[in-house]
Design a protein that fits this description.
There is one protein chain. This protein is mostly helical. The protein has a single domain, classed as lambda repressor-like DNA-binding domains (434 Repressor (Amino-terminal Domain), Orthogonal Bundle). 49% of the residues lie in helices and 7% in strands. It has a two-stranded antiparallel ribbon. The longest helix has 11 residues. It is elongated, with a radius of gyration of 18 Å.
Amino acid sequence: MVRLMVKEVAQREGIRNPLDLATRTGLHYQTVYSLWRGESKQIGLKTIEKLCRTLGVRPGQLFQLDPDIGQPGYPTSDETKRKGNMARGRR
């Protein structure tokens, strides 16, 4: 799962709340509030650009990928080991 890191990044930059971030970025408060709480499902490129310029970060620093262990598309540790061994010619 991709997790937003807007709150954490903003707080490291001394921004204490969504209102402060909204004021600095010029984004609507409700947009920033949703980003701050990690509730946004979709973010426009212009919004990402404003956040990056205001916070002094690269886009990738606003997101974190947390693996969903056991979810479809994510191998379990046993599957990972088995695939690695097969690639090396072991069973």
